[in-house]
C-alpha cells in the first residue's frame, strides 16, 4: 500500500515579520509533533532554545518531537533525504519550509509542484505569508518580493497588530485584500495562532478529508468589485496585480481546460502568480483540483468526494500581474468550445 503523502507548508514573510516567533510557538503545539522544519538559512532563525541534539552537520532534533534541517543550497536534496528517513520509519507527519525573508516563493512552489521525486512523497499543503502590521505597508511599497509573497499566499497572517494603530492595521488589511482576496487574513499577537488555522490550507489532503474549499473560493464574494488601482500610486509594486474567480455551471471538458492551462503557463507564466481551481470535469464524479504557480502546474488531484452541500459548479481563481482578466476569460472560452466541438464531432 502506498504511504500517504507528507503535506508541506511553506512559511514566508519579509525580514522581521515574526516568522521565528510564530515557528517557535507553533512547534510547541502538540499537533505539530512529527514535523520536520526546513530552514533556508540558519543565520536568520533563533531556534536555539528548542534545540536538543545535533544529529549531523545539517540536522538538529527539537524538543517538540520535531526535526530541523538547514537547507544549504538544495531544497530538493533536503526533501529527498527526509523522504528516505520517513521510509526508514522515522515519524515525519508534515514539513514546514521556512524561507528567508527576501525570497520570492515561486521557485520553492515550483519545486514542490514539479520535481518527480518530491511529488512522489509530498503534497503542497499551502503557503502561509506573515506581514508585519507596522512595517508592512512600507515593505510592500519597496520590495517586490514581499508583494509576490502576499499575492501567492493561501493564508496571510498579520503580526505585531498590538504595536500598530487600528488605522494602520486596517489600511494594510485593505491593501492585502486587494492584492489577494483569496487568502483569509488572520491576526497573530506574539506569534500565537492555532496550528489548525494555518494547516490544510492547500485545499487537498491525500487522506481523503474534504478540503476547506470555502476559504479559497472567498474570491467569489469579490467578483466584480474592482477596488484595486483607483487610489494607488501607479509606481507601487502591486500596481497591475489583481485577483478574481470564475464560476462555470456545466461540467468542463478536461482536454479544453488542460490544454488551456498549459498554454497560459507557457506563454504568460510570468504574469500568472497563482491559479487554484476546484473543477467539475465531464465524465468524472469526483472533483478535480488544479493548482499552478507561474510556469508550473501541480499534477491534477482527484478528491475523495464533493464537499457536503456543494453546488458542484467549477470554480477557478486567478492572481494575475499585468494580464487583463479579459485575456484569460476569452482564452478559456475558446479552448473549452474547441474541446466541446471536438467531442461533438467525435460522438456524431
Please characterize this protein's 3D structure.
- There is one protein chain.
- This protein is of the alpha/beta class.
- It has two domains: 6-198, Rossmann fold; 213-347, CobW-like, C-terminal domain (Hypothetical Protein Yjia, Chain: A,domain 2).
- It has helices at 19-27, 75-87, 106-114, 116-121, 136-142, 144-151, 166-179, 195-198, 213-216, 254-268, 325-347; strands at residues 6-13, 35-39, 51-56, 59-62, 66-70, 94-98, 122-132, 155-159, 185-188, 241-248, 272-279, 288-293, 296-297, 301-302, 314-321.
- A hairpin with a 2-residue loop joins β12 (288-293) and β13 (296-297).
- α5 (136-142) crosses α6.
- The chain is globular and about 60 Å long.
- The model is unreliable at 42-46 and 203-235 (pLDDT under 50).
Amino acid at each position: 500500500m502506498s504511504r500517504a503523502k507528507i503535506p508541506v507548508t511553506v512559511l514566508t514573510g519579509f525580514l522581521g515579520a515574526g516568522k521565528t516567533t510564530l515557528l517557535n510557538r507553533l512547534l510547541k503545539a502538540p499537533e505539530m509533533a512529527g514535523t520536520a522544519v526546513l530552514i533556508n538559512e540558519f543565520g536568520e532563525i533563533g531556534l536555539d532554545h528548542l534545540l536538543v541534539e545535533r544529529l549531523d552537520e545539517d540536522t538538529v532534533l527539537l524538543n517538540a518531537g520535531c526535526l530541523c534541517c538547514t537547507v544549504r543550497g538544495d531544497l530538493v536534496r533536503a526533501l529527498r533525504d527526509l523522504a528516505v528517513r520517513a521510509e526508514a520509519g522515522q515519524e515525519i507527519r508534515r514539513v514546514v519550509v521556512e524561507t528567508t525573508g527576501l525570497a520570492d516563493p515561486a521557485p520553492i512552489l515550483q519545486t514542490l509542484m514539479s520535481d518527480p521525486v518530491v511529488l512522489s512523497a509530498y503534497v503542497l499543503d499551502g503557503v502561509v505569508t506573515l506581514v508585519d502590521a507596522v512595517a508592512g505597508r512600507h515593505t510592500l511599497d519597496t520590495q517586490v518580493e514581499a508583494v509576490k509573497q502576499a499575492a501567492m499566499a493561501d493564508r496571510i497572517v498579520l503580526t505585531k497588530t498590538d504595536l500598530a494603530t487600528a488605522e494602520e492595521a486596517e489600511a494594510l488589511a485593505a491593501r492585502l485584500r486587494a492584492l489577494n482576496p483569496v487568502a483569509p487574513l488572520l491576526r497573530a499577537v506574539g506569534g500565537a495562532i492555532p496550528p489548525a488555522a494555518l494547516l490544510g490550507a492547500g485545499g487537498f489532503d491525500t487522506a481523503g478529508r474534504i478540503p476547506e474549499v470555502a476559504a479559497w473560493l472567498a474570491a467569489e464574494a469579490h467578483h466584480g468589485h474592482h477596488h484595486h488601482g483607483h487610489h494607488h500610486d501607479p509606481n507601487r509594486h502591486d500596481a497591475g496585480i489583481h485577483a478574481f474567480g470564475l464560476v462555470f455551471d456545466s461540467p468542463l471538458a478536461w482536454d479544453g481546460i488542460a490544454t488551456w492551462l498549459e498554454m497560459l503557463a507557457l506563454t504568460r507564466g510570468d504574469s500568472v502568480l497563482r491559479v487554484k481551481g476546484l473543477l467539475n470535469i465531464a465524465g468524472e464524479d469526483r472533483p478535480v483540483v488544479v493548482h499552478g504557480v507561474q510556469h508550473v502546474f501541480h499534477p491534477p488531484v482527484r478528491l475523495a468526494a464533493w464537499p457536503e452541500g456543494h453546488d458542484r459548479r467549477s470554480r477557478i481563481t486567478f492572481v494575475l500581474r499585468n494580464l487583463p482578466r479579459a485575456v484569460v476569460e476569452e482564452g478559456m472560452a475558446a479552448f473549452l468550445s474547441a474541446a466541446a466541438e471536438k467531442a461533438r464531432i467525435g460522438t456524431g
